[in-house]
Structure formats: structure tokens, C-alpha cells
């Protein structure tokens, strides 16, 4: 199930991050990228008060970050996204402790997690050793002998430069 996250709301619930930091948004993005990789989930995160001239959206594989300019809050952007999703909103989980955001999500039948609950889930996910990650994009069943064989085949197949 994909997530829609109220970014600054989540940062406020993570002891390792601070809203006072200049790079707080990027720090959260790095944590969410790791979460997406480990859990094979898609995430959209929304931030208020984007600096002028910066991009409004950035893609990081399964993670997409949206930066709302003055005149539009992340809360409004989340509500609009849920309305665009329509009936598909029920397949999403909205992460926020803001009661208005939660009410918008519930009205569209989306699942709701508080920022505290999701922060706990993030800590559990990112504290596991990376060897427990199951990346479905990696091929399975290839051993080092096969790799060595094919490296030799391709190396011997290279055209010779006349000297």
C-alpha cells in the first residue's frame, strides 16, 4: 500500500530530525528512500514553504517529494491529491497527526497512520540489517562461477586491435 506523508508533521515526531535544521527535508527524504527500498513501497511526501526557484517535485525512484509554494499548504496539496485519486484513495495510507489531514483522508476512505506510529515503523525498518532487504529487481540463482564463465566468454569475444 503506498503512502502519502505530511512531511513536516512527520519530522516533528522524529527525535533524530529537527524542523529547525536547514536540511530537515532532505534528511527525511534520505530516510524515506531507505524505507522505500527496504519495504518495496511507494511514498509521496509533501512539504510546506518551498523556497522560491526550487523544483516543485523531485523523483527518487519509489519516492516522490512535493514542495508547496506560498499560498498553498501541504495539507491542501494532500487533500487535492486524495480527491484526484477518487475511489483509489482507499488503497493509500495517509501519514499525519494533523486532525484536518486525517479527516480529509477518512472522508476519501484512505487509511490513516499518525506521524508517531509511522516514525516508529520507520525506525524498525531502517534499524534492520541491510541483508534482510529483499530487492525484487535483483536476479536470483546466479552464482559466482556463472559470472566468471560469462566474463571469460565476453572477454574472449572482444575484437582484437591490430598493432
Care to describe what's here?
With 163 residues, this protein is an alpha/beta fold. Helices cover 42% and strands 15% of the residues. The chain has a single domain, classed as Rossmann fold (3-Layer(aba) Sandwich), CATH 3.40.50. It has helices spanning 7-11, 24-39, 74-85, 99-107, 115-127, 144-156, and strands at 3-6, 43-47, 57-60, 63-67, 93-95, 111-113. A six-stranded mixed sheet has the order 3-4-2-1-5-6, sandwiched between helices. α3 packs parallel to α4 (99-107). The protein is elongated, with a radius of gyration of 21 Å. 26% of the residues are buried.
What tags apply to this protein structure?
163 residues; alpha/beta; Rossmann fold; six-stranded mixed beta sheet; 6 helices; 15% strand; elongated
Amino acid at each position: 500500500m503506498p503512502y502519502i506523508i505530511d512531511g513536516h508533521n512527520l519530522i516533528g515526531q522524529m527525535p533524530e530530525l529537527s524542523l529547525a535544521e536547514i536540511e530537515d527535508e532532505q534528511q527525511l527524504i534520505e530516510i524515506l528512500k531507505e524505507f522505500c527500498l527496504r519495504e518495496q513501497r511507494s511514498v509521496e511526501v509533501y512539504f510546506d514553504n518551498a523556497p522560491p526557484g526550487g523544483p516543485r517535485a523531485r523523483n527518487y525512484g519509489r519516492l516522490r517529494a512535493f514542495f508547496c509554494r506560498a499560498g498553498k499548504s501541504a495539507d491542501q496539496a494532500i487533500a487535492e491529491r486524495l480527491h484526484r485519486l477518487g475511489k483509489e484513495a482507499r488503497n493509500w495510507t495517509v501519514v499525519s497527526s494533523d486532525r484536518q489531514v486525517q479527516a480529509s483522508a477518512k472522508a476519501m476512505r484512505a487509511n490513516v497512520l499518525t506521524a508517531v506510529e509511522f516514525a516508529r515503523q520507520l525506525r524498525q525498518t531502517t534499524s534492520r540489517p541491510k541483508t534482510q532487504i529483499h530487492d525484487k529487481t535483483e536476479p536470483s540463482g546466479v552464482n559466482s562461477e556463472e559470472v566468471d564463465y560469462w566474463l571469460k566468454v565476453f572477454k574472449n569475444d572482444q575484437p582484437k586491435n591490430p598493432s
